[in-house]
Specification:
Blueprint: E1 11-16, H1 20-35, E2 39-41, E3 49-54, H2 59-75, E4 79-83, H3 91-95, E5 101-102, H4 108-118, E6 142-146, E7 148-149, H5 160-164, E8 168-169, H6 172-184, E9 189-193, E10 208-211, E11 214-217, H7 220-228, E12 233-236, H8 249-253, E13 260-262, H9 270-276, H10 282-295, E14 300-307, H11 314-327, E15 331-336, H12 354-377, E16 383-392, E17 395-400, E18 411-413, E19 424-432, E20 437-441
Parallel strand pairs: 1-2, 1-3, 3-4, 4-5, 6-9, 9-12, 13-14, 14-15, 18-20
Antiparallel strand pairs: 7-8, 10-11, 16-17, 16-19, 17-18, 19-20
The structure holds iron/sulfur cluster.
Iron/sulfur cluster binds next to α5.
């Protein structure tokens, strides 16, 4: 264990693991740290202590988090643990009794108190200054906008509500102020996230807040409408197909928000959805998808599914494949059921053997491949707008309205070497493969 050298500016190392919601928690803690004059170190050796933001969703994530804590302890010695794993009983303290403090997720205040106790802040008027948009871990041109914390559902495979609690929506004025600051800082795309985006404001009974001196309800429609005024790409994640989602479709048709919906359907069999305690029925979902597409033909729908949920029969799995044929989703991710410790679903009868869960996952992905490819082929020959993420020897690596960063495909602009990262460009789509589009710059 190396002892950090004394320095005048207290310095914190940061390791951020897990989902976009955890990333957003990390950003809030980093912002507070910088606001109080702490420096952030990219290495363990340069830090006086290290904060590890953990994930505890599935067993593999628990292991990764415990390894990260172990590495930070070995390399630095002073470690504060936060995030979902911290909320899972004594796992962290049992594995690593030397950690200085352990908090659950969304606990910026507790993390700051632990940091103060072990590394007091030093007042410095220059380091106290942080940019108004806070500290972010994403590239400069896109940012996550977390609108709420926790979840009121109790899906039987998920332990997030027990880790993060019931839904707590952020006041709409605060969310819009943050969005505005991000826009002023040069962000081009906002990724709206939460555990259940459609439920925004339910807990506050859609309380009226204020933005720009005007009253505005804490509700997803009003939020999207206001975000649409900022002139950015606004992309919605983790949307549940409640009837209120229909109200968002006109905003997509008008170009106020991106024609993109990330809806985790999880399954298509009524019985399995019931066992999962999911809100929607597959039949109604198909009707809704068709209606949405009639209004917004370019709507991209991404979803995720679980294969091998306890009790899933071959015929119920085939129902899922039939659903994919009918729904013609653009992007699909699938997970083999993982028995997360503490999840109610683990007690259900007839567990599916692990090998079969995996095999069904592979079959599902293979089945979807043709559908996703056909959806992309429809774009060949069309002119579309893209946002540039990177430049490399292939050209500009960009994304279209249909591609969320990190989870969807790319648009490779083969003659886009002179574009700039964070720039919008118009391109003509020339070709595609299963995931990506290939395009050239369109004439002005
Ligand atoms: S909606 Fe279900 S899966 Fe999503 S966070 Fe809530 S309980 Fe978990």
């Amino acid at each position: 264990m190396s002892v950090p050298a004394k320095r005048s500016i207290p310095t914190v190392g940061f390791v951020s693991l897990g989902c976009p919601k955890a990333t957003s928690d990390s950003e809030q803690i980093l912002t507070r740290l910088r606001a109080e004059g702490y420096a952030i170190s990219p290495s363990y050796e340069g830090a006086d202590l290290v904060v590890v933001n953990t994930c505890g969703f599935i067993d593999a994530a628990v292991e990764e988090s415990l390894d990260a804590i172990g590495e930070a302890l070995a390399e630095n010695g002073k470690v504060i643990v936060t995030g979902c794993l911290g909320a899972k009983g004594d796992i962290v303290r049992t594995a690593h009794p030397q950690v200085l403090a352990v908090t659950g997720p969304h606990a910026a205040q507790e993390v700051m108190e632990a940091v103060h106790a072990h590394l007091p802040p030093q007042h410095d008027p220059f380091t106290d200054l942080v940019p108004p948009q806070g500290i972010r871990l994403t590239p400069e041109h896109y940012a996550y906008l977390k609108i709420s914390e926790g979840c009121n559902h109790r899906c039987t495979f998920c332990i997030i509500p027990s880790l993060r609690g019931d839904l707590v929506s952020r006041p709409i004025g605060e969310v819009l102020k943050e969005a505005e600051a991000l826009a002023l800082a040069g962000v081009k795309e906002l990724l709206v996230i939460s555990q259940d985006t459609s439920a925004y404001g339910v807990d506050t009974k859609y309380r009226t807040g204020f933005w720009g001196g005007k009253p505005v309800k804490t509700r997803l429609y009003e939020l999207c409408k206001a975000l649409g005024e900022l002139g950015l790409w606004v992309r919605l994640h983790y949307v549940y197909p409640y009837p209120s989602v229909d109200d968002l479709i006109p905003l997509m048709a008008e170009g106020k928000i991106l024609p993109y919906l990330d809806i985790p359907f999880q399954h298509a069999s009524e019985r399995i959805l019931k066992l999962m305690k999911r809100p929607a029925s597959a039949e109604k979902v198909l009707d809704r998808i068709q209606a949405w597409r009639r209004e917004v033909p370019d709507l991209t729908i991404r979803s995720t599914f679980i294969t091998g949920f306890p009790g899933e029969t071959e015929s119920e799995f085939n129902q899922l494949l039939d659903f994919l044929d009918e729904a013609q989703l653009d992007r699909v991710g699938a997970f083999a059921y993982s028995a997360v410790a503490g999840a109610v679903a683990n007690q259900l009868p007839d567990p599916v053997p692990e090998a079969l869960r995996d095999e069904r996952r592979r079959r599902l992905m293979q089945h979807q491949e043709d559908i996703s490819t056909q959806r992309l082929e429809r774009k060949i020959g069309r002119r579309i707008q893209v946002l540039v993420d990177d430049i490399d020897e292939e050209g500009a690596i960009a994304r279209s309205a249909g591609d969320a960063p990190e989870i969807d495909g790319l648009v490779i602009v083969t003659d886009g070497h002179d574009l700039e990262i964070g720039e919008f460009a118009e391109v003509n789509v020339a070709d595609c493969d299963v995931h990506d589009l290939y395009a050239t710059l369109a004439a002005e």
